[in-house]
Amino acid sequence: MPMNATRGAGALRPGRPLRIRGTSPSTTTCRRLLAAHGVPEHIRRHSAQVARIARKVGEALHERGEAVDVALIEAAALLHDIAKAPCLGSRLDHAAEGGRVLRELGLGPVAAVVERTSTSGRGTRAAR
Question: Which domain holds residue 76?
Answer without folding.
Answer: 27-117
